[in-house]
Design a protein that fits this description.
heterodimer, A: 548 residues, 21 helices, 2% strand, B: 115 residues
C-alpha cells in the first residue's frame, strides 16, 4: 500500500522547525507554534499508527521513484512502535522546555533545533534506504550537537567537543560500512539488500558482508551507548539542558536500538556464512548466530558497569546517565538471547491467541523495555530538571529532605524509580518480567540447566536488577529522605515543571495498568521485525526496469 | 592500476586521520576527523568500481559498454555537504572551548571520572 500519510510526521516536524524560526521575534507566539507543532506531530503519529494497525505496513516512494531506485519510506508496526514512543516523550519534553529554558534562550534557536532533532529521529525510524538512514542520523546529530552545547560554558563546551568528535568518527565509519555494503550487494534499498543477502548460494560475498555489518554495528552501539562505546554518555547528559537529556536518553538512544533491530533482525538476518565461523562460542552459520555472543557481551558489560557506576555517583544527572547505560544493556540482553535461540523455537504466551516464536518474544521484551525506559527515564530526567530549577543543584550531597519540601515531585520520582526497578503494576514490571521470561524459556529450550548462554543471561539480569534496586534506593535516601540539605532550604517553587514531569512519569503507571494493548503492539512490532519477506513484499523492489 | 593507487591513498588517509585524532591538540583532532571523513568519501567513490567508461549515456546507446557506477558519486556529494557542515561546527566549537576553558589541550581539559 502506497500512502502519502507516511510522510506526515516528517512534514509536521519540519514545518514546526521552520515555523518556530519564522516566529522567533515574538517569544509567546513562537512557544505556542512550537507546542502546536509537538501536538500535531503526536496526532500525525497516532493517525499513522492507527492506519498501520488496521491496514498493515504502509510505504511511500519519495518522488514516485519506485524502489529500489528512489528512497522508500516504510511505516511498519516496528517503526510505528518506536515512533509512538518518540512522539509521547518528545511532546512532554517540549512542554517542559517551554517552562524550563529561559525565554531569551528559547527564542535563540531552541525550538527549531528541537524539532529538527525530532525530524531526524522520525526519518531514521521511517526510512527504508541505508544511505538515507545515514542522512537522517546526521540531521538528528547536527541538532543534538547544538542542543548539548546550548548553555555554552566551560563544562558544556568540553562535553560537547567529546560528543561531536566521537560522533564524527562514528559517521565516517558508518559511511565506510554503507559504502562497503553497497559495493558488496549492489543496492542501498534495505528490502532489496535483504533479498540479495538471503539468496543461497550466496549471491554476494558473505564474509565481507559480515565484516561490514560489524563495522556498522559499532556505530549503532555508539549511538545506543553500549559498553565499550558508553563513555560519552555521562558528560553529555550532564551538559545538556534537562529536557534535552530526557530526549537523548529516551529517544535518541532508542534510534541506535531500533537500527540494530531493523537492520540485523530484518535486513541482514538472511545472510548465511558458508561453513560458519570457527570462533569459540559461536554456533550455526547464520548472521544472528555471530551477533548473539557479541550482543550478550556488550549487554552484560553495560548492565554491570552502568549499575555499579550509578551506585557510586553523587549527582542526580550522573546517576541517571549511568543508569541509562545499564538499562540499554537490559534492552539488548533479550536481543542477544533472541539472536542465539534457534529460529524455530516456539513460545506459548498466555494472553496471545497463537504461540509466537521465542525469537519474537525476545524482541517483544526488548521493545517493551525500551518503552518503559523511555517513559521512566525521560520522566526522571525532567524531574531532575525541576529539582535543578527549584534548588539550583542536582548534587545529592546538597539535597536531602525533598519529600517534605516538594511531596508531589518526590512521589513522582518514587514511582519513576520503582518503574526502573520493576515493581507491579508499573510498566517496568512487565519489561523486566519479559526479559527474565525470554532467558528462562531459552534455558529450558536448550536442555538441562548448565552454564550456557541463557543461564548467563539470567544471572546477569538478576545482578542488574539488584544493582538497579541499590542505586534507586541510594538516590531516594540521599536526595529525598533524611535531613534537609542546604540547597533545599532556599527552595523556589516550579509548579509547572513538576506537573509536566509527573504527567510523563504517570505514563509508567498507565502503561502498566493497561498493558494488554501495549503488549499486543509490541508483539506485532516484534513479528514485523522478524518478517523479512513481509518487509520485502511491502517495499516491492522491482529489480528490472520496465520497458520504455 | 587505479584501484591499487586508491587503496594506498585511502590507507594513508585513514592512518593520518587516526594519528591526528589521537593528538592532544583539539585543532589537530578536528583536522583528523575531517581527514577521516574525506577518506570515507574517497572510499565511497572507489565502491563504484572505477573500471568502465564515464557514465555518460549517449542517445540510443543501450548497455553495450560497461559504465562506472554513477550512484556513489551522488552519495559522495551528499556526504561532502554533511561533512562540510559538521567540520565547520567542530571548528567553531573548538574556538568556543578555547574561549571558555582557556586551553585546547585535551589533557588539560581533563576527563570526567574514572569511566
Amino acid at each position: 500500500m502506497v500512502e502519502q500519510i507516511v510522510v506526515a510526521p516528517l512534514v509536521i516536524a519540519l514545518g514546526a522547525a521552520v515555523a518556530s524560526l519564522l516566529t522567533r521575534r515574538w517569544g509567546g507566539l513562537q512557544r505556542a507554534v512550537s507546542l502546536a507543532g509537538g501536538v500535531a506531530y503526536l496526532g500525525a503519529v497516532a493517525l499513522l499508527f492507527q492506519r498501520v494497525a488496521t491496514d498493515g505496513t504502509l510505504t511511500y516512494q519519495v518522488g514516485k521513484w519506485t524502489a529500489p531506485y528512489g528512497i522508500s519510506l516504510v511505516a511498519d508496526p516496528l517503526a510505528m512502535f518506536m515512533l509512538a514512543l518518540a512522539a509521547v516523550v518528545s511532546l512532554a519534553a517540549l512542554a517542559f522546555s517551554v517552562l524550563y529554558v529561559d525565554d531569551d534562550e528559547q527564542r535563540l534557536s531552541y525550538h527549531a533545533l528541537y524539532h529538527m532533532m525530532v525530524l531526524g529521529v522520525t526519518g531514521s525510524f521511517l526510512t527504508g534506504d541505508l544511505f538515507n538512514l545515514f542522512v537522517w542520523f546526521e540531521v538528528m546529530l547536527m541538532a543534538s550537537y547544538v542542543l548539548v552545547v546550548f548553555y555554552g560554558r566551560a563544562e558544556h563546551t568540553r562535553a560537547a567537543l567529546q560528543y561531536v568528535v566521537l560522533n564524527l568518527v562514528g559517521s565516517a565509519l558508518m559511511l565506510v560500512a554503507i559504502g562497503g555494503l553497497y559495493g558488496v550487494t549492489g543496492t542501498l534499498n534495505m528490502a532489496q539488500m535483504s533479498e540479495r543477502l538471503a539468496t543461497t548460494p550466496a549471491g554476494v560475498a558473505a564474509l565481507p558482508a559480515l565484516g561490514l555489518t560489524a563495522v556498522l554495528f559499532a556505530v549503532f552501539a555508539l549511538k545506543a551507548g553500549l559498553v565499550p562505546f558508553q563513555w560519552w554518555v555521562p558528560a553529555t547528559y550532564s551538559a545538556a539542558p534537562a529536557p534535552v537529556s530526557a530526549m537523548l536518553a529516551a529517544v535518541v538512544k532508542k534510534v541506535g536500538v531500533y537500527a540494530i533491530i531493523r537492520l540485523y533482525f530484518t535486513v541482514f538476518s538472511g545472510l548465511e556464512i558458508p561453513g560458519g565461523l570457527a570462533l569459540p562460542g559461536l554456533s550455526g552459520t547464520g548472521l544472528l548466530g555471530f551477533y548473539g555472543p557479541v550482543l550478550f557481551l556488550m549487554a552484560a558489560a553495560s548492565i554491570v558497569l552502568g549499575g555499579v557506576a550509578a551506585v557510586a555517583h553523587d549527582d542526580l544527572d550522573q546517576v541517571l546517565a549511568y543508569s541509562s547505560i545499564g538499562q540499554v544493556g537490559f534492552i539488548v540482553l533479550p536481543l542477544a538471547v533472541a539472536a542465539t535461540v534457534p529460529a524455530g523455537t516456539i513460545a506459548t504466551v498466555p494472553g496471545l491467541a497463537e504461540p509466537i516464536s521465542l525469537r519474537a518474544l525476545g524482541l517483544t521484551a526488548a521493545l517493551v523495555y525500551a518503552l518503559n525506559h523511555a517513559v521512566a527515564k525521560g520522566g526522571l530526567f525532567l524531574a531532575t530538571g525541576a529539582v535543578d530549577s527549584m534548588t539550583g543543584t542536582t548534587d545529592l550531597r546538597r539535597l536531602g529532605g525533598l519529600t517534605g519540601a516538594v511531596p508531589t515531585l518526590s512521589a513522582g520520582v518514587f514511582v519513576g524509580g520503582l518503574g526502573l526497578i520493576g515493581i507491579p503494576p508499573l510498566s517496568g514490571f512487565f519489561a523486566k518480567f519479559l526479559v527474565f521470561d525470554t532467558a528462562a524459556r531459552a534455558a529450558t529450550a536448550s536442555g538441562p540447566l548448565g552454564l550456557g548462554g541463557p543461564e548467563l543471561a539470567l544471572a546477569t539480569a538478576l545482578l542488574g536488577a539488584t544493582l538497579t534496586i541499590a542505586y534507586v534506593t541510594r538516590l531516594w535516601n540521599r536526595g529525598f529522605w533524611g535531613a534537609t540539605g542546604d540547597a533545599v532550604e532556599r527552595l523556589s517553587p516550579a509548579t509547572g515543571q513538576v506537573a509536566v514531569a509527573l504527567v510523563l512519569i504517570a505514563g509508567v503507571l498507565v502503561i502498566g495498568l493497561a498493558f494488554d494493548p501495549v503488549f499486543d503492539a509490541a508483539v506485532d512490532a516484534a513479528q514485523a521485525a522478524l518478517d523479512s519477506e513481509g518487509y520485502i513484499d511491502a517495499v516491492d523492489p522491482q529489480a528490472e526496469v520496465s520497458g520504455e | 592500476m587505479i584501484q591499487w593507487l586508491l587503496a594506498v591513498v585511502l590507507g594513508t588517509m585513514f592512518a593520518l586521520g587516526t594519528f591526528l585524532v589521537l593528538r592532544r591538540d583539539v585543532v589537530r583532532v578536528v583536522w583528523g576527523v575531517a581527514i577521516i571523513g574525506q577518506a570515507a568519501n574517497v572510499y565511497l567513490v572507489t565502491m563504484g568500481g572505477l573500471v568502465g567508461e564515464a557514465p555518460l549515456i549517449a542517445r540510443g546507446d543501450h548497455g553495450e559498454v560497461a559504465y562506472t557506477d554513477p550512484l556513489v558519486q551522488a552519495l559522495v556529494l551528499t556526504a561532502i555537504v554533511i561533512g562540510f557542515g559538521t567540520t565547520a561546527f567542530a571548528l567553531v566549537l573548538t574556538y568556543r572551548v578555547y574561549e571558555e576553558n582557556g586551553t585546547i589541550d585535551t589533557h588539560e581539559l581533563g576527563g570526567e571520572g574514572p569511566w
